[in-house]
Write a structure and sequence with these properties.
The protein has two domains: 167 residues, no CATH class; 205 residues, no CATH class. Helices cover 54% and strands 16% of the residues. The chain is built from 15 helices and twelve strands. The strands form three sheets. Strands 4-7-8-6-9-5 form a six-stranded mixed beta sheet. Helix 1 packs across helix 12 and helix 2 runs antiparallel to helix 10. It starts with a helix and ends with a helix. It is a multi-pass membrane protein. Its main location: membrane.
């Protein structure tokens, strides 16, 4: 600790250069925190997927529907506990930017197939008996100030009513659900499939996909194959996956987020490596007389090496922590667009490790040269 003031003085020998270097590292780790944090949050959501559930979609595409009659056939298979279904409603609230994840469902099936959802039984019963009833997630209700008893208008971007050709649908909030195991999924809205199927102008008697709750998750591969075999060579063949596989394939339809993030961060840190490395080399060249004096006063070669490495380490670690701290403060802003609530701790740990590697990569060559410095030659120069 007694050499900290010395190391600090060496670090701030050129204040402007140190500030610029610090700023560039902060920006790099701010970008790292945001991108890698989003990627990690998506992966965490996938990992939390229920291993007891299968998702059955149309083999052609998720946008192609399946007949409602498939439900009884799937439910009759050995090993299946209960079958529910969902369909993408695609609405927005008041403004096209306010997109909502809304699904027509059969309440008694939907919530039985998702036991992790916490909701009072009387609210489920209210949804079953109210034709235009709806149950909203706690996060969605907080965002728009909804409460039980409110009537909300939604405009669907897909479905129109058969009665008037209008895409505006009105729902009465009869319940608020929570999902303590995954708060990011409290942004959905569920309403009655029967009301939806009767009112829509096309696609009657179909659903978007089936959710199959299993009795034993170890039989998931076998039951998935059985379901697909059951509907093979039919007009609507199926593709059955575990919930985790379904989440992964759904994200990859948008983009391979993990690969994109990796490429961007590789480019950023590759450029940063050269920028910080050249700055470190320049700083050590300017410190040659001081280093020679330190060796004259009795500093060993190894101590000089360690001193310069610690100088690079302190700069990189402090800048990385600042960048990650700013990213952590900005992260809650993504809740409304991505459902991401907070930055995973693993990202912060990974960032600190990368900062240490960056310090070692940029500081080892100038530190090694300083270690081999000959006092007489250094003082002569």
């Amino acid at each position: 600790m007694k050499f900290v003031p010395l190391m600090w003085a060496m670090l701030w020998r050129k204040k402007l250069r140190t500030w610029l270097t610090l700023f560039s590292i902060v920006i790099a780790f701010l970008l790292f925190g945001m991108l890698q944090g989003i990627n990690a949050a998506f992966q965490e959501t996938i990992e939390r997927s229920n291993v007891n559930r299968l998702i059955v979609t149309n083999r052609i595409s998720l946008t192609e529907s399946l007949p409602y009659s498939y439900m009884s056939q799937i439910e009759s298979l050995p090993g299946v506990a209960i079958v529910s279904h969902e369909s993408w409603f695609g609405p927005y609230y008041q403004d096209p930017k306010n997109l909502i994840a809304a699904f027509p469902v059969e309440p008694e099936r939907e919530f039985a197939a998702h036991p992790e959802v916490v909701i009072p039984k009387e609210q489920i019963a209210a949804l079953e008996h109210m034709r235009a009833g709806a149950i909203a997630g706690a996060g969605l209700a907080r965002k728009y100030g909804w409460k039980v008893g409110d009537r909300i208008p939604l405009h669907s971007t897909i479905w129109v009513k058969a009665s008037d050709g209008n895409s505006d649908w009105d729902f009465d909030i009869v319940g608020i659900y929570e999902e303590p195991s995954n708060r990011t999924r409290e942004d959905g809205l569920f309403f009655n499939y029967k009301y939806f199927d009767e009112a829509r102008s096309f696609g009657k008697g179909t659903v978007g996909w089936y959710v199959v709750q299993l009795k034993d998750p170890r039989q998931s591969a076998q039951i998935a194959a059985t379901i697909d075999k059951l509907f093979a060579n039919s007009p609507n063949e199926t593709k059955t996956q575990t919930e985790k596989e379904f989440q992964q394939s759904f994200l990859k339809q948008i983009a391979d987020i993990s690969l994109i993030v990796t490429y961007i961060l590789f480019a950023v840190f590759f450029a940063l490596l050269f920028a910080v490395g050249s700055t470190a080399m320049q700083a050590v060249r300017e410190q040659v007389p001081e280093l020679a004096v330190l060796k004259t006063l009795g500093f060993s070669d190894t101590r000089v090496l360690v001193l310069l490495l610690l100088q690079a380490l302190v700069l990189c670690i402090v800048a990385a922590l600042l960048g990650l701290a700013v990213a952590n403060l900005l992260f809650p802003l993504l809740r409304d667009t991505l459902g991401v609530v907070k930055m995973p701790v693993a990202v912060i740990v990974e960032g600190v490790v990368i900062a240490a590697v960056l310090a070692a990569a940029t500081g080892v060559i100038p530190a090694w040269r300083a270690k081999r410095l000959v006092i007489v030659e250094a003082l002569r120069s």
